[in-house]
Amino acid sequence: MALPGAMLDHVIINARDDLDHAADTYRRLGFTLTPRGYHSLGSMNHLAMFGNDFLELIAVPKGATIRRDLLSYSLGLNGLAFGTEDSTTTYDALSKAGLPVEPPLEFIRPVEVDGAARDARFRAVRMKEGGVPYGRVFFIHHFTRDLLWRDEWRHHANGVVAVVRAMIVDANPVAGTKLYADMFGPEVVRDIKGGKKVVVGNANIEVITETTLKDQFGPSVPNAEGREAYMAGLTFRTVSLTKVAQALQAGEIEFVQRPGQLVVPARVALNALLEFVE
């Protein structure tokens, strides 16, 4: 049975129980966010939709008694979701390959489109709790893509059109990329300076040492909060760095400008380092 194809579907910023603050921050970063949604599992979210992928801000209501796992994770980048068109086959293939996966889980999120109430439907194939040391990794099967990828939600003041990189810190990048080699096949893993990268469609996941991250981004890196392995940040593709700079200035967001990139320090963006490139 063939392993699933490697395609990044979306990345997840954990806002714990303060989605209001997260939404305000990411709007000021220049992202257009979807209306607040409520999952049947108990979490709530806003999305920033791009061409073929998206950014999700996720949280639970204050005082929530379900989905409290989100409160146990640190603030910031916390999840990577990969796409599948056949979650049952994906589960069977990963199980056969010996990966620690949970059986497929279905859930919905009501969406209002053109004045009508609809249910966005999903099925997730998740890694078992404790199987990933630095956050959540899972596959997502969209049954109602037309309810998410809508043109009115794809236009952003910062000009972002795609996620092109997710950065993970791990003192042992070889061990940190074993999961992806097992999920997608060893050919998706490549050597890079200070670590490894995983090619997932049009994006890369870089698993690098903390020293390597600090060499690249200096004081803009996130607070590790004592973690030896953690998801550190994201790189976005934009149509124009000028548009990014203008959006950040309008939102009164601190940033660092370098040749060919703009960087928003993690302390400004819910402990997630954000890089923008053309």
From TrEMBL:
<dbReference type="InterPro" id="IPR029068">
    <property type="entry name" value="Glyas_Bleomycin-R_OHBP_Dase"/>
</dbReference>
<protein>
    <submittedName>
        <fullName>VOC family protein</fullName>
    </submittedName>
</protein>
<dbReference type="InterPro" id="IPR025870">
    <property type="entry name" value="Glyoxalase-like_dom"/>
</dbReference>
<dbReference type="Pfam" id="PF13468">
    <property type="entry name" value="Glyoxalase_3"/>
</dbReference>
<feature type="domain" description="Glyoxalase-like">
    <location>
        <begin position="8"/>
        <end position="182"/>
    </location>
</feature>
